[in-house]
Amino acid sequence: MYRLSPRLTPRVLLFASSLALGSLACESAPGEQAPTGAATPDAAEAPAEDKTSAEPTNDPAPSDDAESEVREEAAAADPMAGLNGTQVGDAAGVGGLGLKGTGRGGGGTGEGTIGLGNVGLIGKGGGGGTGSGYGRGAGALSKRSTPGIVRPMPSGPPPVTEDFDKVEVEGFKAVADEPLSTFSVDVDTASYAMVRRMLRDGQTPPADSVRLEELVNYFDYDYPEPMGSQPFSVMTEVASAPWAEEHRLLHVGLQGVPIDDAEVAPRNLVFLLDVSGSMNRPDALPLLKQGLGLLARQLRKQDKVSIVVYAGASGMVLPPTSGGDISKILGALESLQAGGSTNGGAGIELAYKVAKDNYIKGGINRVILATDGDFNVGTANRSELERLIEQKRETGVFLTVLGFGRGNTKDSTMQMLADKGNGNYAYIDSVAEARKVLVREAGATLTTIAKDVKIQVEFNPVLVESYRLIGYENRRLAAQDFNDDKKDAGEIGAGHTVTAVYEIVPAGKGGTQPGVDPLKYQGERTPTGDALTGEMATVKLRYKAPEGSTSKLISETVTDDGKTWAQASEDFRWSAAVLAFGMVLRGSEHRGKADMKMARKLAQGSVGKDPQGDRKGFLAMIDQASSRLAKNPAVAK
Question: What number of H helices and E strands is found in the chain?
């Protein structure tokens, strides 16, 4: 190891840096470059809280324990040892130059120190100029902190650090014990796009990221349009289950009434945009600008657009502006730059105030929140955010949440905001997805035709022994919630389709539930006359008008005509293919004989017309998932 004098001059240090660059450049990771436009934090700030200079890409940050160990080794060795290792500098002011390994050095606080921090010659870095600096280097050589100690660099794709709510998968319910199944509709599609992105990146999606109802509802289905004044139609179909031949599948489909563009009411839209440091990556703020630019081009003169941004503080970038002034809207979007921490609560407050101040009675009033969900200052506590958004939905302003970015995306927060804010949630992983959500499906995304939509299914014990609702785990409701108009539920947009599938064990097939002892204080239920009519189930729905407070009821009976799987409709077979894929990807214990080969065969045989290519794209996802599971067979088990 080369020893450098502690009294090294700036000129000598810069010369040493240039030598290191010349000798190591050929070994740097391909494609790495220093981030542009990133601010350098002050040494007094906690680096982990500044998401501008310390934003991770593919380089894992050392843990606190690792930093402490490195500090001790540095003190015991040479204060300049950071030139060749992962050192965290103190008063010496050089710390880890990041010339080799993944160094992170502070410029120190000593008088006259150079403050090189981490010069980032290889990889990325942000160092202070004269006495304070914090940097993160990503070199190509192994990490060395003390002569003779070599630490291997991590290999493989970056870890998935997104935050997902835990999905508690329920098994079969005995009809004798629980004849009613109640849940809130869900038209979110974020899980599908997020799973697609992870598979494309060579990652195995975490089980909790695979929400089956969002995979199924990503696609359009050819359900009959509503009749009369009802905002949506209800259809049901029963056929055998491809992964369990003795079981039956009950397919429930809703079709929202479509609205022609000429009939769409004036829109009051507030773009609430996250411009914090964590959005400073190509798949975040730049993609956000492109996506909302596509939406802006669809607006009319009678529509109004406002732009509110938030980072460490919140502010108005564009006051309410006519949708006809497209150049002004696009100019405001293009001017946005990322930097700072994330005060989402303050942004929400301001956005809803702007929406309320410009409220259009009888029009569409909506906040469109575009973020990675990583709120870390201000109202950052999840419970506080939940109470805030529940309070704001009482203004009559609906919410759309658009997720962006990767690595630190907080899916759980974005899902909660959309759920509690009378809204929907989509994840944007590409310009094509932005076009799908904000142009092709703008009516469904922005125009609500019914809110607080709940479904309750009552099963006939004469024909059904047990059942399970596939997916919707985070949307389950208590039976009494169905008639409670104070209970919040999901929303349906114009032209939206909603699909739910039950797996049913017919009476007499048994084996899905352990028995219980006979009750001491009450006898068995006696079937009513309706139980002998051949009806398998009754599907009931409750919904409210977008500005209403009293629900309306729709009821449909279900009969089983004995259809085989081959006799099922194309849409029925497609939904089952998507569910088979999701169950295998999650490693579900209820997947029966399903595997990726079955999912692909089912999907390939039910693609149909597919004018937009969404279903063909799903076939590619199945192939990617098959490849991932082949490398990680433990997931499939």
Answer: 15, 18
**Residue 615, by phi and psi: left (phi above 0), alpha (psi -120 to 50) or beta?**
alpha
For tokens 């003779």, the residue is: 148
Q: What is the phi-psi region of residue 12: left when phi exceeds 0, alpha when psi lies from -120 to 50, beta otherwise?
A: alpha
For residue 328, the tally of other CB atoms under 10 A from its CB is 14
- pTM, 2 dp: 0.75
pLDDT digits (tens, 9 = 90+) for 477-525: 999 999 999 999 999 999 999 999 999 999 988 765 667 788 889 888 8
Euclidean distance between CA atoms 136 and 304, whole angstroms? 43
Q: Is the pLDDT of residue 34 over 80?
A: no
Secondary structure class of 332 (helix, strand, coil): helix
CA-angle at 196, arms to 473 and 140, nearest 5°: 120
Please state, in angstroms and as integers, the Cα–Cα distance from residue 517 to each residue in 41, 242, 467, 508, following that order.
Answer: 66, 33, 21, 19
> What whole-number distance in Å separates Cα of residue 195 and Cα of residue 160?
11
Q: Tell me what percent of the chain is helix, strand and coil, each rounded to the nearest 5.
A: 30, 20, 50
The predicted structure's pLDDT at residue 311: 86
Tell me how far apart the alpha carbons of residues 628 and 374 are, in angstroms, rounded to a whole number: 28
Q: Which one-letter amino acid corresponds to residue 96? A: G
Alpha-carbon distance values, 312 to 64, 391, 535, 575, 599 (Å): 25, 23, 59, 43, 46
- Model confidence pLDDT, tens digit, residues 419-460: 999 999 999 999 999 999 999 999 999 999 999 999 999 999
